[in-house]
DNA sequence: GGCTAGAATGACCGGGTGGTCATTTTTCGC
DNA sequence: GCGAAAAATGACCACCCGGTCATTCTAGCC
């Protein structure tokens, strides 16, 4: 299930996998809760049950540890995106978006700490190595949606007049917000999205897809 | 132009307005750049050119100072929302949204530090006094959009089938993301939204409104 | 000018941070 | 069982934080 982190110094990679996992999980937990700046190496050390000196032998700096954690989070997200894309190739664009959302909720259920780190990074841009890295991650997300739109356009499912790049950005914003609100209490308080049950989530997915598909302007058919 | 802060201890309010403004602006700057947790009272003190003891006599705690700043930011946003609502009462729903966005860009141009604080708070939920406060601010924003939708529905401009609350949340998410991307470089890098010129912005507004109005699914007319 | 109430000051406090390194402990080939 | 090489350790460093308070300064009244 969990791939080896493949990060840190040679010393870290030579550790018994169980210990690697323990240290890495402690770091994931800490960064997920506190983001980068407010995360404490002392807390990681305590949670992992190792000494401070060891942690700094495994990852030379706080930034090194964070980079490793982010790399794992981003690669998990990439895998999940690819998976959804391949599994839904024959569906219509709107069905694909639907599946993308449901898979997103499921991803959060299974990797909620990594999801927190990933989305927190995307929202805050808070990274030691400059925000270009974050801009790139965002771009990849938007490009993923843009590709789906291009395919849909070629298939004639989507209006020819839509601006692919801008629309991809907007749809991505909707998806991100929905996913974030699923695990963030204060975002949609009282609207049933936070930790919503499957029926609730399905309702939200339908509302979002209705908006994206047909908009909300009244027309002759309504 | 700038109303007196009306916050802090009696001592602070009894200061010469020029000094009040200087201290307050230093705080606004610091919180805008660093958020709450990473903001430093020492930095505020330095930027304001006063002593640490004085700052703590003006605002008993860091939280007190932050609350004052947030209060101003939130009230400015409320004023701006009310203004847009009143000025656009006779327009159609979609024109109103359009004006809301343009006014939002303009608000950021004129109060970009306060805007940063406001949006940062909304996104991070990072506040000393628990996130209920943030949940409330978010709710007010969504309710504002929900009210617009209700009016539009009553006027027959909007499909009867739309879920007002959920749709308000989604539209609010779109507006927020667009506004944030206008002053945040890494959000829509390469898409021309960051510090975009008026023509660029108008294009984005049109794309967003097209999506909200009619969606992107191809129909018989297309 | 002298007095005093109240404002301004910054050294100081306890506690936290990321990071280092001399020392101790463990591992492992012989 | 021994010795050397490698890994683990935690006391320690310089620096920063929010907040306090004894002391100094200053404005305003007589």
Supply database-style keywords.
DNA-binding; 222 residues; 69% helix; elongated; homodimer; 10 helices; mainly alpha
SSE layout and pairing:
The structure is a homodimer of 222-residue chains.
Chain A: H1 10-13, H2 17-34, H3 41-48, H4 52-58, H5 62-87, H6 93-110, H7 112-124, H8 132-154, H9 164-183, H10 198-214
Chain A binds a DNA duplex (30 and 30 nucleotides) through residues 11, 40-42, 50-54, 56-57, 60-62.
Commentary on this structure:
The structure is a homodimer of 222-residue chains. Chain A is an all-alpha fold and 222 residues long. Chain A contains ten helices and no strands. In chain A, helix 2 (17-34) crosses helix 3 (41-48), helix 6 crosses helix 7 and helix 8 crosses helix 9. The longest helix of chain A is centred in the middle third of the chain and has 26 residues, at 62-87. At the A-B interface, helix 8, helix 9 and helix 10 of A face helix 8, helix 9 and helix 10 of B. Chain A binds a DNA duplex (30 and 30 nucleotides) through residues 11, 40-42, 50-54, 56-57, 60-62.
Structure summary:
The structure is a homodimer of 222-residue chains. Chain A is mainly α.
Q: Which descriptor suits the 3D outline of chain A?
A: elongated
Secondary-structure element sequence of chain A? HHHHHHHHHH
Instruction: Name the biggest interface.
Output: A-B, 56 and 56 residues
Q: End-to-end span of chain A in angstroms?
A: 49 Å
What do the pLDDT scores of chain A average to?
Answer: 95
Low-confidence residue ranges of chain A: none
Strand content of chain A: under 5%
Count of helical regions of chain A: 10
Structural class of chain A: mainly alpha
Largest sheet of chain A: none
The whole-angstrom Rg of chain A is 20 Å
In total, the number of strands of chain A is: 0
Q: What proportion of the residues of chain A is helical, as a percent range? A: 55-70%
Oligomeric grouping of the chains: homodimer
């Amino acid at each position: 299930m969990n791939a080896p982190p493949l990060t840190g110094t040679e010393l870290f990679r030579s550790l018994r996998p169980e210990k690697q996992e323990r240290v890495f999980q402690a770091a994931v937990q800490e960064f997920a809760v506190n983001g980068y700046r407010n995360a404490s190496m002392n807390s990681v050390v305590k949670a992992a049950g190792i000494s401070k000196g060891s942690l700094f032998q495994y990852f030379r700096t706080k930034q090194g540890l964070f980079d490793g954690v982010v790399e794992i989070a981003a690669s998990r997200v990439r895998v999940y995106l690819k998976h959804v894309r391949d599994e839904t190739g024959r569906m219509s664009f709107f069905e694909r978006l639907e599946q993308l959302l449901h898979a997103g909720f499921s991803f959060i259920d299974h990797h909620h700490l990594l999801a927190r780190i990933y989305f927190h990074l995307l929202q805050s841009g808070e990274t030691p190595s400059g925000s270009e890295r974050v801009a790139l991650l965002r771009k990849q997300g938007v490009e993923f949606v843009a590709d789906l739109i291009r395919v849909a356009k070629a298939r004639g499912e989507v209006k020819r007049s839509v601006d692919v790049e801008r629309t991809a950005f907007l749809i991505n914003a909707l998806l991100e917000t929905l996913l974030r609100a699923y695990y963030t209490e204060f975002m949609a308080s009282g609207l049933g999205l936070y930790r919503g049950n499957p029926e609730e989530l399905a309702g939200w997915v339908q509302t979002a897809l209705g908006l994206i598909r047909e908009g909300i302007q009244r027309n002759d058919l309504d």
